[in-house]
User: Fold sn-glycerol-3-phosphate ABC transporter ATP-binding protein UgpC from Actinomadura rudentiformis.
Amino acid sequence: MAAITMKNIVKQYGDGFPAVNDVSLDVQDGEFMILVGPSGCGKSTLLRMIVGLEDITSGEMKIADRVVNKVAPRQRNLSMVFQNYALYPHLTVFENIAFPLRLAKKPDEEVRRRVTETAELLELTEHLERKPANLSGGQRQRVAMGRAIVRQADAFLFDEPLSNLDAKLRGQMRAEISRLQRRLGVTTVYVTHDQTEAMTLGDRVAVLRKGVLQQVGSPRELYEEPANLFVAGFIGSPSMNFLPATLDSSAEGTFLETPLGRFGLPDKITAAEIGDRDVVLVGIRPEHFEDASLVSEEKRARGTVVQAHVDVTEWLGNELYAYVPYEAPEDLAAQLRDLSRELDSDQLRTQAVVALDPASMISEGQEAELWIDTSRAHIFDPATGENLTRDEERVAALGRQAEQARLRQRQAQAGQAPTGQAGNGATQAKPDQEPPTSPD
Assistant:
């Protein structure tokens, strides 16, 4: 296993476009790090620089404390799993998994042992004599993972490995990859555009936007304390709602005037911290709305009740979504439309998405009373995107909690890695081959 350290990494192509721009990131030994962001954000380019398939324009890349900027891919001892599986159609499952060992001229007995152990780990034993064409998508992905595992590499790199699978199979494979990484304890860097994968798989998540690192933290940290408007909009499904608001101070106190009504300022921010900004964006997650008719009087007092016109409802059995349109100044409406396009989302527009108890009787076309937990609201500067309510003490506490949880997991798994895998004292294999490209 090995830590991966990136310092001021830049990738600039011939036309001057910076695909990756000044990224510094430390992936700890044994950590599961997710690189996430919309299409074109630079996450796959960064992964390819780690493995050595892309040259680094400037900056320093270290693997196991060794600078690898000029080191060939085959000498980095990394295993990569590709989106398209990169399996050889004319070879059996056994020979696909064994391929890097054959290339390294390992003895037949060692090849047989390591492939057998890997197949047992991935529940592929009964498929070893089959060809890839006769396997399901999930089985092919497990074969690709098997070829990565069998090399006993210092780190695993995944480049959107589940994007070709249907939704049900993606859920199953997410659980398998998570269990596998925890069991092996191998440093893993995983690229995805799917924030659900990012939230469910990673010890930490690094969010990229247009080649720039926006925030790194545990999934809970990113969800509860987003650094800026982009992270808040990208992490979470449905996305966070953003309501334009102006500050209104009177003898009664200081309030935020929004299209859905008048809110009290959250305790975590003061009027002085908002300063002379004419307009701010109030971020409220869908689950922080409730049907006011189902809220107790005691709870009502801890939030705000607003009247809203419900345009559309979606009842999904275990949850009910209501869509509430609102008016916004044209410049802010345009900003939300632009952010929606960047996030490949149709939700960050001039409407609020509200997640309600499925017992709610609110229906489309209705004027409804909604209760909002305004204590959970975030306030953003629309010009810079900065989260003005970000609580640095809570961020640090969430980071400590995540690290403690990761250490407990590693301690629980210590000594439980299967025979031949890293972590049990077995001799690590030397680099066997350059990561394969997709076979024709």
